[in-house]
Structures are given as structure tokens and as C-alpha cells.
Design goal:
2 copies of one chain form a homodimer.
Chain A (H helix, E strand, L loop, with lengths): L2 H4 L1 H10 L7 E3 L6 E4 L4 E10 L11 H17 L4 E11 L5 H17 L3 E9 L4 E9 L15 E5 L4 H11 L7 H11 L5 H9 L5 E4 L4 H12 L2 E5 L7 H6 L4 H7 L6 E5 L4 H11 L3 E8 L5 E4 L5 E2 L14
Parallel strand pairs in A: 4-5, 9-12
Antiparallel strand pairs in A: 1-2, 3-6, 4-6, 7-10, 7-11, 8-10, 9-11, 12-13
Helix pairs in contact in A: 3-4, 3-7, 5-6
């Protein structure tokens, strides 16, 4: 059924009918505002705006995956603070000739991850628009002191969770195969783009153990997000290119793009963090509990040095262009 | 300066630099998430999505007014729960050829009302888009038990704050004068459209005194919003057309549109609420403290009767079409 037949309130009723109430939700979808329990006297809030053709292309991603990914990207922002997600508010701009079934598929993707992470969908808004777009607001709570971007010091180690570049390469593959998913290693790379996993457990554990002193998730690309962290902390950083963690599949298929995507590929959703050198032993000990490999990929240096990528001989490599600024055209 | 010259991060820096930190903000704009104090172990959350040419037209409204109005509309949703606004997250889709100054004007309008109501701007997102659009997410706290839409009973009185139809008529006038503001009564009507006032004080007081049993703000039009309230409460309603409160300016200039706009005009941001008959005396007593006229305009009846508009002889009048459904074309 087309949305123009179902109508806005019909759609809201459908969404409402299939949305479980959720933990802590005193009043959910359907009133002027949602009313929600909070913990420890504070909340964490993050938001994301995703537009068709800018942030995603429905030729390469299904509605279900897009829903899943939307929530995952926002959970990743909370994970980067050491927080835990709780409530989601979702606003959608939807072309009137979309099928209601597609929008429901989108919500299924949202709901899949939401139920895994105990996130409740508590409200939102839907309006007609030329392009599909998504405004997501995710709330969470902070079981431990949140980790900001500003706690890195000169001399700290630079660590990253998981592997780099998979998502960017996965998108390449999706484009090349026109969205048809493959099996095996290719499927792995594609899924890293379509249904990425936020490092929620790692984020909370690093906060609990007070190991990460500054942390950010990689959404715009390693170098760009490292830049945000360095500016907030007032330091520079040296990145050791040869130590960047790359998945087997990535090594096999990335070819000439290997270092480019690892350094600048966005939507990676790994966590980048600083660690005091004295905490290396403690980090090692809890690495298994983190549930994800963590790799030392550089160190923080004085601010005037900026960000440098060096090879194993210490030679400074040219910085690749990349990362995402929405108002600038890439050259 | 065009936005494509300033860039996304340049814009964020500008906004951040001119945003005061705000009460209760433990961590504001510029990290992966904002960290915010909450009161009484709960929060109220509302959101709104506004798109150029659908919800507003930059020919009739200035960037400053649009900012003011965006926040006002969201405050109105919290007021309708008896809540108090605290934190705003704002996501903007902005055409790349917009002037940065216009976007700053928009933020000035936001900030004007935000400082009046002690709302802190705590985060958001900006992306390039074809049309200007605004995703607002407003949090608040509930000093008293929130008033939902579902508490109205058969036999209750139906009340409304302020006057009806001014905003719709104001928009008509703005279109006719091509956005040039007038003085006197015309200016009043236009301002009711461009910089509406949310009934914040009335909302909280009605909650504090436990007078309103069900409440909603009029954003889609009296009849449509009354419909939402009736459905949620499982009742019907009778509206007395001759008692609808109309401003002097409205009576003078509305002409043939008088009852149409009063019944269906959107963006009115008055509060519509149910009152037990036994509370009439108590309501009368605190009317002056409410800071706004309140008028009894009907009563709640059994659900099967639906919503009826009647004249002073009790004659049922034909229901006008109107109110807003975003996925349906108006006939």
C-alpha cells in the first residue's frame, strides 16, 4: 500500500501497534511527549541526520539494513562515551509514493537491534518529503563517568578496536555487485557496511575500568575523527600505518585502496581511544572481556606536530584526502 | 559567506562558540553525545520535523522567526503535558548555497526564546540537503504528574486557552502582503503565525492544580487535535461554535473564513483540555494566575456521537474539511 493511501496517522497507528512498550517507558508513542524514567540523575543524548543520496543509497542498502544501521550508528556514539542506550525517537521524511511495507521493513531493522540492546522506540514524527531522510535521537544513561574527547595527553598510547576500512570496502563491493549480497568474505565486508556493530560492550568496559581517557567512534574516518579528538584534547598524534588492524577479507580484497580506506573510510564504528602508558598491563588483562581485538596504532604527541602517518621506519607519509564534510564538495 | 565556503565543521564551531552552556548541562555541543542532568528521575521528550515548502515558506517567514517558532512549537508540546522544557537538540538539513548568516539568524531566533525559557541547546547535526529542514528534539521535566490525552470522560467540560484561528489568518495576511509585516492588529495576527507563544505557564499550572484531566496543544487544528484527544480518551465531543474565543483582530479581518480557521486552523498552540464539572469553581479562581483567557467551548459526550459542531440552537453544523495529514493531498 502506498503511503498516500495509508495516511500519516494510519502509519503512526501501524508503528505504534507493533512497538513494544519497553523498559522505563512511563508513556510512549501517541501523546504530545513521551515520559521516560532516567537513572542516576542524568542522561546522554546523541542525534543523527541521514539523507538519501547523501548518506545512503537505496540501490545498495535494504530498508531493513538501513533501519538497523541507523540505530547502530547512534548506539556507537553512546558507546564512545561509555554509555548505554535506552530510548529512541525517530523522525522520518518519506516520499509519498513509498510503499508502507518498505517503511515497515525499516522499522523491523530498527526493532531487531533495539530489542537486542533493550532500546525502546518512544516517539517521533513522520512527514512527506522529496527524499527519504531520517532524524534519530538516541538517549542513554551513563553507568560510569562519560569519556569525552578531551582527555588525551601527550605521551598517551593510541588504540583502536576491531579492524579498519571494512565498511568503505564493503560499500565498494555493494556498488560493484549492484547491491546483491555475496557469501563468505565478501558478505562479511558488505555486512560491515550494511549492518555494522557498535562497540557497546567495549565502550562501557573501557569506561568502567577507567582505561580510555579520551574516546571517539570512527564515523567520518580514522584520520578525521582522530583530528576531532586531538583538537578537543589539545594534542597531536602519530599513526603507525603498518600496525593498522586489517581483517583477512580486507587484506585480500582491498588492493590499492588498502591504506586509503583504512585511514579515511567512514562508518566504521570502531572506537578510537587514548590510554596512559602505565595502563597497558591492565588493558591487556581485560582484552578478552572486551569481546573485540584492540590494537595500539600510534601515540599522542605535542599539538604543533598535528597528525602524522608514519611507516615502520618512521618515515612521514603523505596524508590522504578524505573524510566527510557535508557542505564541501570533495575535490 | 556561503555555507560551502564555511564548511560543516566551521558552522558547528560558530554555533558552539555562541551557545551558552546552560543550566544542568554537564557536557554540551562538541562530543559524541551530550550529558545532561535530569530531575525527579524522569524526562519528557518531544520531537518535530519541519520541511521547507511543507511546513514553512521562507517567502513568508524570516529565519529568525522560524527559529523562534520551531522552539515554540516544541515547548507547546511539553506545555500540553504540564511539563517544563530544559534541553534542545537541533538537526538541520541546509542547502549548500544558503548564507551562513541566515543560518545564524535562525539560531538567534532559537536562542531568544531559549534564553527566555531557560532551554539549553545541547547538540545536533547539520547536513547538506536540497530543501531546508529542521529536526527538533526537546527534552523537559515533569514537575507534576504529566497530563496525557486519555483522561477525558463523558460529561467533562471542554476548554481552550487564548483565541482561535489567529495563526491561520496571520499566514493568509503574510501571503497577501508577501511577507511584509504590518502594524497594529494586522501585525498581531501575523505574529501569532510567525512567533507564536506556547502556553507554558498555563500548562504547568493546570497540571499542578490537577485541573486538566486530558490536554493537547492545537497544532493541526482544533477539530483534528480534539479528535486525537477523543480517540485517546474513548469519548466524543460537542463543540459550541458560537462560543469559540476569537480575538478582536480576528473578528475584524477573518470575514468568510471565521469559523473555518477557528475550527481547523493549525499552528495555533493553544491548549485544549477537559475539566470535571465539579472543578469549574477552582478553575475560575485561578484563571487570572493562568495569564491567559480560558473559555468553555463544549463538552465531552459518548464516543459513538463522534465530534459535532453545534450552533446556539443546538443545530448540528456540517464539519469543515481541514487539518493536516502529511501523506494525503487535501481535496
Amino acid at each position: 500500500m502506498k503511503l498516500k493511501q495509508l495516511g500519516e496517522f494510519g502509519l503512526i497507528e501501524k508503528i505504534r501497534g507493533t512497538t513494544p512498550r519497553g523498559l522505563g517507558v512511563l508513556l510512549g508513542i501517541g501523546d504530545d511527549a513521551a515520559w521516560l524514567k532516567t537513572q542516576k540523575g542524568s542522561v546522554l543524548v546523541t542525534s543523527d541526520l541521514l539523507i538519501e543520496k547523501v548518506h545512503f543509497d537505496l540501490r545498495w542498502i535494504s530498508f531493513y539494513d538501513l533501519g538497523y544501521k541507523t540505530l547502530s550508528a547512534n548506539i556507537s556514539d553512546l558507546a564512545a562515551m561509555g554509555g548505554v542506550p535506552t530510548y529512541l525517537v525517530l523522525s522520518l521524511g518519506i516520499p509519498v509514493d513509498f510503499n508502507a511495507e518498505d517503511v515497515e521493513e525499516f522499522y523491523h531493522g530498527i526493532r531487531k537491534l533495539a530489542s537486542e540492546c533493550e532500546v525502546a522506540l518512544v516517539g517521533g514524527d513522520t512527514v512527506a518529503s522529496d527524499r527519504f531522510f531520517i532524524g534519530a535521537f538516541l538517549m542513554g544513561h551513563a553507568p560510569y563517568s562519560p569519556i569525552t574527547r578531551s582527555g588525551a595527553k601527550e605521551g598517551d598510547d593510541l588504540y583502536v578496536t576491531g579492524t579498519l576500512g571494512d565498511s568503505a570496502l564493503g560499500l565498494d563491493l555493494l556498488k560493484r555487485t549492484r547491491g546483491r549480497t555475496k557469501s563468505g568474505e565478501l558478505a562479511y565486508l558488505m555486512s560491515r557496511h550494511s549492518t555494522p556493530t557498535a562497540r557497546l560492550k567495549a565502550g562501557t568496559l573501557l569506561a568502567k575500568e577507567k582505561l580510555a581517557k579520551a574516546m571517539i567512534d570512527i564515523s567520518d574516518g580514522l584520520l578525521q575523527d582522530l583530528g576531532h579528538l586531538c583538537r578537543a584534547s589539545g594534542v597531536g598524534a602519530e599513526v603507525w600505518q603498518d600496525l593498522l588492524p586489517l581483517s583477512q577479507a580486507y587484506q585480500k580484497y582491498s588492493g590499492r585502496k588498502a591504506s586509503l580506506y583504512a585511514l579515511t573510510g567512514g562508518e566504521n564504528y570502531e572506537l578510537l581511544f587514548s590510554l596512559r602508558m602505565r595502563d597497558r598491563g591492565r588493558l591487556k588483562k581485560i582484552e578478552r572481556r572486551l569481546g573485540v581485538p584492540i590494537t595500539r596504532i600510534g601515540k599522542f604527541v605535542p599539538a604543533p606536530q598535528g597528525i602524522q602517518v608514519v611507516d615502520h621506519q618512521g618515515k612521514i607519509l603523505p596524508l590522504p584526502h578524505g573524510g566527510f564534510d557535508h557542505f564541501r564538495k570533495s575535490s
